[in-house]
Input
Amino acid sequence: MLSWPFYGAGLENMGQDGHPVEVPVPQPASDQLLTRVDACGLCFSDIKVIKQGGEHPRLHHRDLKKDPTVLGHEVSLTVAAVGEDLKNRFHPGQRLALQPDIYYRGQALAYGYVIPGGLQEYCLLGAEVLEGDAGCYALPITPELGYAEVALTEPWACVEAAYTQRRRVNIKPGGVLWIIGQAGDETDYQLGDTFFAGLPARVILTDLPQSLASQLAGLNLPLVVRDSLSTNDFPLLAQSYTQTGFDDILCLGPVEAGIIEAAAKLAAPRATVTLVGHRLLSRPVSIDLGRIHYDYIAYLGAPGPDIGAAYGSNRSRSELRSGGRAWILGAGGPMGRMHLQRMIQMPSTPGLVLASDIDTPRLDDLKRSFGAQARLHGLELVTLNTKDMPPAALEETLRRIHDGRGFDDIVVMVPLPALIEGAMPHLAPDGMLVLFAGIARGTYASLDLSGIYLGQVQLTGTTGSNIQDQLNVLHKTETGELSPADVVAAIGGIDAAQEGMRAMLESRYPGKVVIYPRVMSFPLTGLVDLKCIAPAVAAKLGPGGTWTHAAEMEFLRLNL
Output
């Protein structure tokens, strides 16, 4: 069979001399499946591996020259052979989707990273996939689904995950809570009923009003009073009373921006940082965007004096607001297109979506691909090229689009702090800013967090997906609620895989690249160019030139 082994950082280390390598088809052991790879979507996560090689976090410092892997984690599979111990669970010809974020006995063994992935004709699935920590990561599907749409349910699951609740919005039971007040604050704070949803094991008190300290004392919790601390004292406080940081940090008043900045750095993964107060902060707060994205840090707030109002179900909106105003920053790329398509095809769409980018042809392609669908669903689609726009002109344009009311939802596809700093002031009250782009930990932005407690806006971010997310997408695909393959922009045979990666590096196509490993030779081709290379396939494209099951079947009929 043909395979694209990856030997280390750099596109030149994918395959040999720019070509796939011929290797023996592996034979399954008694607890393994041999699966045929019918389609493999290429992802910008693959580009990160190509740039970093064995130093990529998911490869755990693997020596790829001695132990190469195979990239490609967005796959559609067909069972080709079944090990003896699995014949009561699987059969040849069975169709499978795959959730690649695999954990086995506590180890991260992602498919397409540690486990060789889909840029090959066949691959083995063993116990780590079939008996993983979250169950079986191979998901049986109905045979009626197309290969590309099954492969793309994985990136679609990441989009779906962006609108499901991943953050904790209550005090962690048994955790460590740190409450920071300020001298002279005479507000009559009340804990409220919601606060008692989860009692911490220990509470650290710093400069609290006496009335609130008395309420906490009545809960019979272990209390530690540490008043008059400077920000230099904060790290030692965390070392003394926590293992990985404070599970919950509550700032009253709110305290000065510098105190919030220093305290937030000591938040544990999945912590809450809660602000309660009724006055504006004196300046923006510098916060780590990457920790919101990867560590699910939740910034919560309420104006007070009821502290409990900052927590609970009233702070748990994760879905887009029906009939609201949404803005996608960086909408022209593959994932931005997917977010836009979801907004259009969801049962309760926003009323208006602004799709902004710095590439006019990509924005034109969005209108061509999705304009008719948007009108059909009663959604107003506005596109905006922000390149070279003076700040004042951009501000005026944005305010005109949202009519001075702000956007209910802002979804960020571009990991640039300056763009996020410019977007947040345009959030409406109770608005949600979704950090979808892969923003590295240690990436800081200066944000006015006053809206967190005065307007109860929320910052949220997700990374990756899980089995349930992908099952949700498969269900939507089977019922016709979602068409995953609408975002396909280019296709190719297995010989085109390296060129597909190069195309992503060059941002050559506005949508997804899909490789068909069973096709030995077909050049990487944009769907708009199929009419010249494969007119019979082009004739079966859908409205707006979208990839369809019929086009896929014709492509395979001609090329297998």
Summary: The chain has a mean pLDDT of 94. The chain is about 25% helix and 25% strand.
